[in-house]
Structure prediction request, 587 residues.
Amino acid sequence: MPQLRIALNQIDSTVGDIDGNAEAVLRWSRHAAEQGAHLVAFPEMMLTGYPVEDLALRSSFVEASRAALVALARRLDEEGLGELPVVVGYLGRSQDAQPKYGQPAGAPQNCAAVLHGGRVALRFAKHHLPNYGVFDEFRYFVPGDTMPVVRVRGVDVALAICEDLWQDGGRVPAARSAGAGLLLSINASPYERDKDDTRLELCRKRAQEAGCTLAYVAMVGGQDELVFDGDTIVVSERGEVIARAPQFTEQCVVLDLDLPAAQAGVPSGRVDDGLDIRHVTLSEEPVEPFEPRFTGTETEHLGDDAEVYAALMTGLRAYVAKNGFRSVLIGLSGGIDSALVAAIACDALGAEHVFGVSMPSAYSSDHSRGDAAELARRTGLHLRTVSIAPMFDAYMGALGLSGLAEENLQSRLRGVTLMGISNQEGHIVLAPGNKSELAVGYSTLYGDSVGAYGPIKDVYKTTVFRLARWRNAEAEARGETPPIPENSISKPPSAELRPGQVDSDSLPDYDVLDRVLELYVDRDQGREQIIAAGHPAELVTRILKLTDAAEYKRRQYPPGTKISAKGFGKDRRLPITNRWREGEHTA
Prediction:
């Protein structure tokens, strides 16, 4: 049985940085060659980054991607890597008109190519295009209609791109029909909680359906609201895990595989879903038998809280670095939300790049000021105090505000203060709002919503508390000082905008609120379904009305790391002007 050493590069790329991404492919290919690899693979749309969104509609960007692909093939050859097949994703376009899809020639496509011998040996486009959640690929791309197969050292390798595995039919059964010995899928699969278990079961199932070993290479890093956790997986044709890479870590997974020899002749013809086999032979002769060095390891995956925390760090770190910033600014109230954001920022960027501002008013408690100072002492972040009392008095003297307007003025003065420091010193402001507050509108526009990024935007309040306790416990287990003051965790949450104020004055208890929100926001259940699940009708009606009325606020909130199946932003898209209210209409 032929042997093949494959190198699966679980790495990051940056949207629009075609030259930088090409350099990364060159560097990691060189590393793979040094390990003796016979086949190298990179993630989906590696050359352009993913997702490119409306950049796909610019012909200049498409052509830059295509030109970079050709140049990369040439550079690999010039560096002595020409005989090493490299599979890499890029943004391409269709070559022919496809009347059955109503798309003209030249329409953008989510493509991949095999580079070999200084040229592009094979091109193909994603067959199944996702059009749900954060994906809009029907907006941008037309599907591919081939079953690409490349023969490497006497082994036929079938090729696929991400959604080709997630949907039934198409390239998975076609790989079996083509007699492939390996199905290689390149992916940019965004992180969601619990998705790693679903992904593993998917790979096991698809390997058995394809009747061959399956190699799933994934992207890591962050792009705006999306985080990519890696989780590269290789499974046998029986669904047994051969290798699994760690999450949120760049790594070249090198693996020695025994694979079936290619059938005599060249497979051809039309297979499943009307796909035509496109076969390219790069090398017929098997490699000389060798003693396997890389037999595979299965990395133990992170626990639930560790995984979410790692995703939040990854998202923030990527947003800061890829947008050319070095430091962040956080308004520190002494409360749990800003404390968790500060801890994430210190872990992601280093405390020397995190700047906090305590902005007390007449209603700020002594313990809140003390908790902010204690957080700074524990983490080592920079802290300054800027009282908003003089500003508040000046505004009140001029405007004579009262009630809610007076409360919100304090929040907006803090927002102005943060943005002034940001403009002066070059830090980006982090907004500390959590998903529970954003859902019901318990936030002040142009106040605590001020910021360039919201690290915990997709984290419910109950999870905020749990992550804070987990982070402190991790520190204690390592013999370190827990970063978050215990008082920030244990005291009742409060905006401190009036005397004695606590969140429970305006909202249900967070454990109750979050359970209802999870059903309404994340699962799209209606009022009657939520009541049937055991929640009081009056409470459900109140929460749903608050959520519906706050859509205009959420639309103006900054982007933030997505960790759930349905975050506010790309996932959940509702009209702002909307008179539909759950429970007010009957069939």
In short: The longest helix spans residues 403-425. The chain has 18 helices and 19 strands. The CA atoms of residues 355 and 382 lie 5 Å apart.
